[in-house]
Design goal:
Keywords: Cell outer membrane, Membrane, Signal
Radius of gyration: 23 Å
Number of strands: 8
Structural class: mainly alpha
Pfam families: SusD-like_3, SusD_RagB
Subcellular location: Cell outer membrane
CATH class of the largest domain: Mainly Alpha
Order of helices and strands: HHHHHHHHHHHEHHHEEEHEEHEEHHHHH
Largest sheet: 2 strands, antiparallel
Protein name: RagB/SusD family nutrient uptake outer membrane protein
Strand content: 5-15%
Helix content: 25-40%
CATH topology of the largest domain: Serine Threonine Protein Phosphatase 5, Tetratricopeptide repeat
Distance between the termini: 44 Å
Number of domains: 2
Family: Belongs to the SusD family.
Strand order of the largest sheet: 1-8
């Protein structure tokens, strides 16, 4: 969604002035203080804007990489040395990451910055806004954003410091994961009555009442992981609140893929909370971009998708994950590029002209420099044929065509850069429906006349023309979630809850259970000496 950013954004200068680099608390070091700014409704919105800009910052980078590349959903091997990046990607695959892993550090830094920026905005608005519904709503929205960020931090690292007072620069020790869980729950429940009950353009990109309910459902569904206590009936009640709002519906089969196109936005019937992206936006001090096509589209298919740059195409899925897409009548199959490739007419082959040696670097014939033209054929297996120790498939056409590619977030031909206009959902209505089904299967009570299988069939009837299921098991539900939420950064969360994160896939054999949480990054421990390292990483 493109113009929506004007409702969330603010002048670039102001973003830079309100940004902090390291701490959860963000000191004001310029003349922009509550005495002089903000003083009117437009300036109140500008004060809240940095929170949403900050949240967009690493949502499609550090959050996505850590939540997806550490699972069987995605893999980013090196190809001729490209994308090795100091083992940042291979560590996520092998589950042998250290506190110095770049993406794990970025995830901590980003989440902390969103929390710190939220603390700042809440403090300023609390001092400057006149009492009334506008103030309570705006501050409740910001507290919900802070709760979302704490959810991500707690889900990823376990015990984390709780710091909600702007201006408190003391070092904070980690709080127990149960206490962080309780904090998030209380924040969301307290915000709920004051959040906007509407959906659509008026609330798009900001949390509304059902954002809080959907996040509560996610919190309760994972309560056994986070606290050791089951909260399945609470999950069902939160899901029912979203369902009873009548604001959302499952996108039909005919528009499922369009839900992730560059033209998506508040018109999508499933989006409860989404992160808006604008390919033309330039923001100082943040990443704030969405580069899926850069990582996922084979470099040979630039012309097919009409994109203005040559993609790097290092990212693919693994056969273990693709095996879940086993229904020929399922529209979700169409998010994948597999096998022989054709242009969009479905007839003209996608071809590449290279040399015999360029096609296969291990070719030993005397005519290795002879021209060679072939039709691109994406193969399912990843083979580290150049250097297994360096996670390297090779630097030839065979290597670059290894792995099926996901283009759910469809390449944006309108963009003049690698950035895309596709908004990325964080919470969708189909997730609420499947969360309720799972909570019932795990022992919760049926409500609203809905059983686990009827709920799953609500989703499936909008995805496939195959017959409805007569029953559903937890394993079948897990596979349905894998199909439905591929590439949406929920797979790590699902794998842990279903007890699959210690399994084997690709080249990974590590089954250490302490890796269900990431280590506290080295740079975070340097900045905050009160932090202690997570168990297993000492």
């Amino acid at each position: 969604m493109k113009n929506i950013l004007k409702y969330l954004g603010l002048p670039v200068l102001l973003v830079g002035l309100l940004w902090s680099c390291d701490d959860l608390d963000v000191p004001i070091t310029t003349q922009l203080t509550p005495d002089v700014f903000p003083q009117n409704s437009a300036q109140y919105i500008q004060t809240a804007g940095p929170v949403y800009v900050a949240f967009r910052g690493e949502y499609s980078f550090a959050w996505w990489f850590t939540q997806s590349l550490s699972t069987d959903e995605s893999i980013m091997p090196a190809r001729g040395g490209n994308w090795f990046d100091n083992q940042n990607y291979s560590m996520l695959h092998y589950h042998d990451w250290t506190p110095d892993n770049g993406w794990i550090s970025s995830l901590w830094d980003w989440s902390s910055k969103v929390i710190g920026t939220s603390n700042q905005a809440i403090s300023i608005l609390d001092k400057t806004m006149p009492e009334g519904s506008d103030k309570t709503t705006m501050i409740s929205e910001l507290k919900t954003m802070r709760a979302i960020s704490y959810f991500m931090l707690m889900d990823s690292y376990g015990n984390v410091p709780l710091d909600t007072v702007y201006g408190d620069f003391t070092a904070h020790a980690k709080s127990d994961r149960k206490d962080v869980f309780i904090f998030i729950e209380k924040e969301l429940k307290k915000a709920l009555p004051n959040l906007n009950p509407l959906s659509g353009i008026t609330t798009y990109g900001r949390p509304n009442k059902q954002t809080a309910n959907a996040l509560l459902a996610k919190l309760y569904l994972n309560a056994d992981v986070y606290t050791g206590s089951q909260r399945y009936n609470d999950c069902i009640a939160a899901c029912d609140a979203v369902i009873n709002s009548g604001l959302y519906m499952i996108e039909p089969r005919s528009t499922y893929l369009q839900m992730f196109y560059p033209t998506n936005g508040p018109q999508m019937k499933e989006f409860i909370f989404a992160v808006p992206y604008d390919a033309s936006a330039v923001t100082v001090g943040y990443n704030g971009q969405m580069y899926h096509a850069r990582y996922d589209v084979p470099r040979s298919e630039r012309a097919k998708f009409g994109i203005s740059f040559t993609p790097s195409a290092p990212r693919s899925t693994l056969p273990e994950f693709y095996a879940y897409f086993n229904d020929v009548n399922d529209i979700r199959n169409n998010q994948w590029l597999t096998g022989l490739q054709f242009m969009n007419d479905g007839v003209t082959p996608v071809t590449v002209t290279t040399t015999k040696k360029g096609y296969d670097q291990f070719y030993t014939g005397s005519d290795g420099s002879a021209a060679y033209t072939y039709q691109v054929n994406l193969t399912p297996d990843i083979i580290l044929r150049q250097n297994p120790a360096l996670f390297d498939c090779g630097n030839d056409e065979i290597a670059w065509n290894m792995g099926y590619r996901n283009i759910k977030f469809y390449p944006d031909a309108t963009s003049t850069s690698r950035n895309q206009n596709n908004d990325v959902p964080f919470l969708r209505y189909s997730d609420v429906i499947l969360m309720k089904a799972e909570a019932i299967l795990r022992g919760g009570n049926e409500t609203l006349g809905q059983s686990a299988v009827s709920l799953v069939n609500m989703v499936r009837s909008n995805r496939t023309t195959s017959a409805a299921w007569g029953g559903v098991t937890l394993e079948e539900l897990y596979q349905e979630r894998s199909r439905e939420f591929a590439q949406e950064a929920w797979h790590r969360n699902d794998m842990i809850r279903f007890g699959k994160y210690e399994g084997q896939w690709g080249f990974k054999t590590n089954s250490e259970t302490y890796r269900r949480t990431f280590p506290i990054p080295t740079n975070a421990m340097v900045l905050n000496p009160a932090l202690t390292q997570n168990t297993g990483y000492n």
